Amino acid sequence: MSKIIFLDVDGTLVDYEGRLPESAVKAVRLARANGHRVYICTGRSKAEVYQELWDIGLDGMIGGNGSYVEDHGHVVMHQLITGEQCRRIVDWLHGRGLEFYLESNNGLFASEQFETRGETVMQQYCKRKGKDDADQMTVRKAFPEMIFDGELYRDDLNKVSFILESYQDFLDAKEAFPDLQAGTWGGKDEEALFGDLGVKDITKAHAIDELLNYLHGDKADTIAFGDAKVDIPMLEYCAYGVSMGNGGPEIRAMADHITDDVEKDGLYNAFVHLGLI
Questions:
Q1: CA nearest 67: which of 151, 146, 162, 181?
Q2: pTM for the predicted model, two decimal places
Q3: DSSP element (H, E) containing 89
Q4: For the chain, is the Cβ count within 10 Å smaller at the N or the C terminus?
Q5: pLDDT tens-digit profile of 48-66?
Q6: End-to-end Cα spacing for the chain
Q7: Element (H, E) at 232
C-alpha cells in the first residue's frame, strides 16, 4: 500500500545548519521508487526551498506552516497576508524597534538592521541545537538568498518573522494583530527567539487536509515526520507520526515512533523501520 509522506525540513530532512544527509536523499528516492509520495511540510516559504532539496526528487511542498500547497508544480492553495496587513506589521515593528524579515515565495526580505542584529540570535539558535561551531553562524549563512535592500511593503507574503527582544513583544504582537496567527519559534515560551505573524487559522494539518482533498487521498495512508512543537498538529492529523531523535520533549512524548537524530540517519532508519524502503 503506497503512503503519502510529509517531512518537516529543518531538524528533520536537514540538520539545523542546513546540511542534507546523503542517507536522507537515498531514503526519499527509494521511497518514491517504491510508489510512495513524498512532500516537504515546512515553515519555510518556497523561496527558502533551495534547489538541492528539489533535486532530491519531491512530489511537492507545503510551505509557510500551511499557507501554501503545491503538487508537481500545481498550486493547490495559497493564502497570503494582505498588502494592508503587511503595511501595518512593518510599521508596528519599525515603531517598536524590532528587526524582522518578510517571507514570500518570491524571496526573503530583511529589515534594515536584521543582518547585524540577527547574527547573535542565529548563533544562539544554533547553540541551543547543540552545534559546536554555532559561534561561526551568520545571517547570510543561515539565509543564503536573503534580500537586504528589497521593498518591505508587499502583497505576496506568507508570514513575517521578527526578533523578540522580550517575550512581551510576542504578547503585544498577538494583541495588536488579532486578524493574524501569532506564534513563536527558536525556543519554548519565554525562551523563544523569534515571533511570527501569518494567515489566521492556517496550520500544517489544515494544509495536508487540502492536499489530500486535491489528491483524493486517504488520511489512513499518511505519515508525518517532525522535530518541533509546530509539527505536532501535523503528527496528530496524520495516521502515523514520527519524531526525530533530536526533537523537543513535547513532540517526542506524543509521537508514535521516535527515530534517531537527523545527523545519525534518522530519516533513513525510520523509513526502513516503517517498511517504506
A1: 181
A2: 0.84
A3: helix 83-96
A4: N
A5: 899 999 999 999 999 988 9
A6: 12
A7: helix 232-237
